[in-house]
Structures are given as C-alpha cells and as structure tokens.
Amino acid sequence: MYVVTLEQRRREAGDLVPGLLRRLADLGTVVPFQRARAHAVQGITADPGAAVEAVLAGLRGGAWSAGIGVGPVRLETATDPEGRTGLRADGPGTVHGRRAAEAAGGPGGRVPVHVAADDGPAAAQAQAVLRLLGRIVAERSDAEWRVVDLLVPGARGQQKVVAAELGISPQAVSKAVARSLWQEEWDARPAAARLLGLCEPARDGPAGGGAQGSTMNSSEIIHS
Asked: Beta partners for 114?
C-alpha cells in the first residue's frame, strides 16, 4: 500500500485543499483522498502509478509537500471520541507515511517529496526520480500548463487541435511542449511507479516488516 500525504506549504494562498481534492478525485484508491488536517490531504492507494500522479498533482506550482509511506496497511471500521465513524488505518504503511510526511514538510530540499519504506535504498531511489519529476512540474509556467493540460499522453496529431482551441500557432504549442518537458515527464512516470513498487516488502516475508514492533500502536481515523 501507498499512504500519500500532501501538506500545503503556502498558507498565504488561502485554503487550497478543495482544489487539490478535485484533481485527485478520479485516482484509483483504497481510501479516497480527503482532508486529514486543516492544510493536509491524505489517501491510500494500492497502485504505485496513482501515488506518483497524486504526488505530481501536489507538487504542481510548488504549493505542497508530498510524503509517501510504503508498506502493509490494515483498515477497520472505528468510531472516534466525537462519535464519527470512519476507517482506522494502522500498520507499517501508516508509520512510514507519517515519517515521510514529516520529512517532506521539513526544511531543506528544493523539491519537498520524501519516500519512506522498510527498504531504505529502494525508497531513496524512488524518491530521487520523484524529485526530478517534481522539479519539472513545479517549475512549469502557467503558459505551458495552459497547453499541456489539453494534451492526452500517447495521442497523435493533437497539437493542431490544441493550437486552435487556444488561438495560437501549432509552432507555439510545439515550443511550449518542448520547454515544459511534458513528454519527458510522461516517459519517466512509469519508472517512478516501478521504483515505488520495488519498495513494497516481499509478499512471502513476515507481515509488517521492519516497521512493526513498538511503532505499530500508531493508527489514525480516516473519516468518510
């Protein structure tokens, strides 16, 4: 499982949570993305590609930090002290998720993304590729986003259609795509997802892995 936490860094911009949740609404998740705290969003997915997409959606524009915790997660229905019913999540994935979110939100690093897992070297490799991708989306200009938001990965002959819709030349679209590194981003996304997948503990190994033990009492209620 992949526990993805996105925390708003630019508080002066107001509440950006509703807009981010709209961008994440169609991702395949086990627990849908929702507000976890005043300025934080969290979701759980079994798909490393969805985790990559969520992180890049958050890093767009540089307004969010992103943490991914990788590992088994146990979900059960629970009621909090205020009588609200939701899902209680615990297990190594949630422990790593907290550690990743804290590290991503801390000082240092131009691209605030952190991956935590039992397999530290594998997490570091996934994190390195995500930071490269995050740098691309964080530094993409508004003009470039207006172009690439209309593109569909893998589709051919679409630049003329986009140019007509925006009222600009096909050459301008082509230059914006090249400057934005949009094609390179989409070429690298599967590699990031693959590296995240390698962070998962072996299915035939001991349940819980190295994050189990004294930290396993960590849990949280995720409200529906």
From this structure: 67
Measure the CA dihedral 115/120/122/128, to 10°.
Answer: 50
Q: CB of 138 within 8 A of CB of 130?
A: no
Nearest alpha-carbon partner for 110 in 145, 144, 136, 149? 136
Q: What percent of the chain is modeled with pLDDT above 70?
A: 89
Are 41 and 35 in contact by the 8 Å Cβ rule? The answer is yes
Distance, in Å, from the CA atom of 109 to the CA atom of 111, rounded to the nearest integer, reads 5
Q: Which residue has the tokens 């009222």?
A: 167
Distance CA 118, CA 12 (A): 36
Q: Which pTM does this prediction carry?
A: 0.84
32 pLDDT band, cuts 50/70/90, is very high
Name, in order, each residue with C-beta under 8 angstroms of 51's C-beta and a sequence gap of 6 or more: 2, 4, 45, 68, 193, 196
Helix or strand (DSSP H, E) at 143: helix 142-148
Q: State pLDDT tens for residues 81-134.
A: 877 777 788 899 999 999 999 999 887 678 999 999 999 999 999 999 999 999
* Residues 6+ positions from 224 with CB-CB distance below 8 Å: 34, 85, 86, 87
Q: Give the C-alpha separation, 17 to 10, whole Å.
A: 11
In our burial notation (b when 16+ CB lie closer than 10 A, e otherwise), range 47-80 reads bbbbbbbbbbbbbbbbbbbbbbbbbbbbbeebee
